Amino acid sequence: MEEHSAADIVGFSKFRFDRRRGLLSHQIEDGQFVPIPIGSRALDILGLLIDRHGNLVSKDELLDAVWPGVVEGANVTVQISALRRVLDDGRSDGSPIQTIPGRGYRFVAPVTRCEAEPLPKAAADENRTADKFASTPITPAPSMPIAVSPSRHRAALGMAAALLVALVLAVGAWRLWVIERTSATPQVVASTSTTPFVAPRLSIVVLPFLNLSNDPDQQYFADAITDDLTSDLSRISGSFVIARTTAFTYKDKPIDVKQIGRELGVRYVLEGSVRRTGEQVRVNAQLIDSESGEQLWADQFDTDRANLAQAQSEITGRLAWTLNIELLSDASRRIDHENAVDPGARDLVMRGWAWWYGPQSPKAGQEAERAFERALEIDPRSIDARIGLARILVGRLGGGWNSSSLQQDSVQQALVRSERLLFEAIESDPDQPMAYAVLGLLRRMQARLTDSRIAFERAIALDPNFEWANMQLGWTLLFLGEPGEARALGEKSLRLSPRDPNIAWRYELLGWCQLLANRADEAIDLFTKARTANPRSWLHWHELAGALGLKGDLAGAKAALAESLKLKPEVNSLAQWHDYVPWTSKESSPRFWALQDKTFSEGLRRIGFPEH
């Protein structure tokens, strides 16, 4: 194969890429090449893929080459999607950029060298982006005494003045461009300019955790917490996380969060400490708004010295999951304040997830759906909007908090659309844990429990501390008749998110695990916690009635059942209950069915709950 890496101009399909000019052109019907406006980050990625033609290029390699010093995995996906929108248009033989799931990308289209041709300046200027302009230093030429006539001198002055005005206008336009683009293409900015810089919405730096103990061994633990948390936060879609190497330059220095925010161009600063007292180790963390210096959130974790290695993963996982919710919630409030009239697609996606992560209710479901639908209208290729909308649709199928929407869309329509949205998202980016987790939920609703388990396990493989996926895999394992394994995942979920706004579903899962093991007292305690956390849910009253009946507290069971029937009168028999959870039928879930019949159903029979 011909060596392509040294070529300044290469051609493939009907495209020509001139790396000297930073220009991608497309050949039209008359044979001429027309420049395509596309960002320089995308072109940098394209150049690297072409240089490594036919070979795998990992995400990390692309990050190191295009965004050195920044942990920003989502940016690679965004730029690959931008390239595919251009390169795949009108193709029927697959994309020139091939995705290798879980590993990276490969450029597979045949590439040839091209001869350099002069290009009109206007065309080149159209495609040149501001980040290229900003990175090119302007060095004045050395001055020389030159004898000129007065008229020529005046002409030279006029020309110089015109050039100066043009330069000032160009710089001003570039600054405006940067401010408009920062939420979509984040950059680390260190500047003393008085021009205000708008940091990306989910931008954060994790400062090195302080070791407040005399024990030097705790320093390794503190540094490990910082490293792991930096990596975990970078998995949040749309996040912009400063790399560890940059963050550690602030180690052992006085902390001024406002100055750090300005220097690094981030909205949030996370700082923390590790303190040992005897055999106990306490980890403190706080999230600070770098603009105001206000503390937005704080938490602490206690563990013993003997379990540091085991505790490290859960501490960072819990921090990352909680921070995901806190960051989205704060970003949503900012969006409401700053862009009340016309938020963009990225802002709408963040708003949708903030609604979903908050306390669940019909209003929350409707607001989340509205935000995701609008985001998809603005940006039809948005992966996150697809996943979010699929999550809402699948939630309807479970008869959950947005079930009223079933009056408008049939179950089959919701199934078809949610599955299509998820497949499109996974095809665009096969490394999205949330996409697999929602697919796992969809497969469970379809009574395809083995497929559900596989999808959830894939999500957790991509993000081991993905709390929601751990909980949902626990439910699938429960319905597969494996309450022991389900309980372990439920307990991990509870440790990762002990203050979750929707903690009731975690208690409910653990309650079922205890109930199926015929431990009625433990089940009653957990169902009571679930009911207290979400008193509007008829499910927790219904489940509590079964557990109380199994224990022999018939009066308490009847009272709980009466409350359940007030909230959900149509579930008035065991047959109606089984219709409500069709994925637990004798055919799809025989082991669960048998365990349920001996415990929960038996408890309801004891208080006269009818079979039909």
What are the SSEs and their pairings?
Layout: E1 9-12, E2 15-18, E3 23-27, E4 33-35, H1 40-51, E5 57-58, H2 59-66, E6 70-71, H3 73-87, E7 97-100, E8 104-107, E9 112-113, H4 121-127, H5 130-135, H6 150-181, E10 203-206, E11 210-211, H7 217-233, E12 240-242, H8 244-247, H9 257-264, E13 268-277, E14 280-289, E15 295-304, H10 308-338, H11 345-357, H12 362-378, H13 383-397, H14 411-428, H15 433-445, H16 449-462, H17 467-479, H18 483-496, H19 504-516, H20 520-533, H21 538-551, H22 554-567, H23 574-580, H24 590-598, H25 600-605
Commentary on this structure:
With 612 residues, the protein is α+β, with helices and mostly antiparallel strands. Among the domains are: 9-114, Arc Repressor Mutant, subunit A (Orthogonal Bundle), CATH 1.10.10.10; 203-335, 3-Layer(aba) Sandwich (Rossmann fold); 501-612, Tetratricopeptide repeat domain (Serine Threonine Protein Phosphatase 5, Tetratricopeptide repeat, Alpha Horseshoe), CATH 1.25.40.10. The chain has 25 helices and 15 strands. The protein has helices at 40-51, 59-66, 73-87, 121-127, 130-135, 150-181, 217-233, 244-247, 257-264, 308-338, 345-357, 362-378, 383-397, 411-428, 433-445, 449-462, 467-479, 483-496, 504-516, 520-533, 538-551, 554-567, 574-580, 590-598, 600-605; strands at 9-12, 15-18, 23-27, 33-35, 57-58, 70-71, 97-100, 104-107, 112-113, 203-206, 210-211, 240-242, 268-277, 280-289, 295-304. Strands 6, 10, 11, 12, 13, 14 and 15 form a seven-stranded mixed β-sheet that branches. It has a five-stranded antiparallel β-sheet with strand order 4-3-2-1-9. Strand 3 and strand 4 (33-35) form a beta hairpin. Helix 11 (345-357) runs antiparallel to helix 12 (362-378). The protein is globular, with a radius of gyration of 29 Å.
